[in-house]
Amino acid sequence: MLTIHGDIRSGNCLKVKWMLDALGCDYQWVAVDIMSGESRTPEFLLLNPFGQVPTVVFEDGRALAQSNAILLHLAEETPWIPSDAWERAKMLEWLFWEQYSHEPYVAVARFQRVYAGKSADEVEPRLMERGYAALARMEAGLAGVGWLAGGQGATLADLALVAYTRVAHEGGFDLAAYPNIRDWIGRVENAFGIQ
Amino acid sequence: MLTIHGDIRSGNCLKVKWMLDALGCDYQWVAVDIMSGESRTPEFLLLNPFGQVPTVVFEDGRALAQSNAILLHLAEETPWIPSDAWERAKMLEWLFWEQYSHEPYVAVARFQRVYAGKSADEVEPRLMERGYAALARMEAGLAGVGWLAGGQGATLADLALVAYTRVAHEGGFDLAAYPNIRDWIGRVENAFGIQ
């Protein structure tokens, strides 16, 4: 059975859990508390030298990190990776953008509030500014389309981006002015059976 | 003919150029000076709402951003994307890691020196510290293997990571203590014909 080493509060870890749930795969969850340094112990670094969660360990002992790489590996041959080459390229564009231009702001602002216990005033203004820029980009990208990659169904781009977008309010982001995003969150939760 | 909108000093843009050169594809290069805001003009945002370079525009007018997504699209059906599912997963792991844990430090330190004209003392110590951590991770990952994804030949992981690693010294990083990386840089340059 596959094992996920992860922190249940982390969107990057939840993405992988939701994917396995949607695929109907059995797995074991090993809780790693990143706040107490559990992802940096010698034992964990042996498993994943990147020292990051989620890390997935397959039955044969091989380990894979990077949430979006894990999703792409698990979802091979499923409709969540479009068969159309262009739609697949747009899905990948969103997946890389998520890790570079969304997660470092939307997730990190939430991290400072939820994990580190900072007040709204203590969160770096740059995080809020860039987080809102990322949300504005998504809002525009969802105008007139149901799914981020632009096709007829949900893809990994939707799963990856929903992880931190659905809890953006916990980082202090107000989604009131983002109706496309709010509708899309419900659609993605339905498509993947996210509670 | 395909058009690359890019900045020739940017490793993210050069990756795409090297890929097209290696594939023997013709393309047009449109210089975008990010320092003077050319990637944020209304005209450019119409082309790429992400406001980032590189952006590739195909003959039919469709545009694609995110360097590693562009590489994955261009290299479909080539040996630079391994046919083995596990090797492909490890390639993807490195590609996402590059954008999250390497580029934001190694490339940004270089940006501060080369583009913004800062002295070594003016570069944020955190960038150097995390940049060296990324280089140490690569050095360990290259122990006993020729290529990052662990297979018998170069993959997109090598191309993506070499872009900023080969110019890391311009950001003040000393590769003297990283012999695996130094050997690997030469191998990757040869494999892709990088001058």
From TrEMBL, chains A, B:
What lineage is on file? Bacteria, Pseudomonadati, Pseudomonadota, Alphaproteobacteria, Caulobacterales
Which SUPFAM superfamilies does the UniProt record give?
GST C-terminal domain-like (SSF47616), Thioredoxin-like (SSF52833)
GST C-terminal domain residues = 84-195
- From which domain of life does this come? Bacteria
Task: Name the chain's protein.
Answer: Glutathione S-transferase family protein
- GST N-terminal domain sequence ranges: 1-82
> Signal sequence span per UniProt?
none
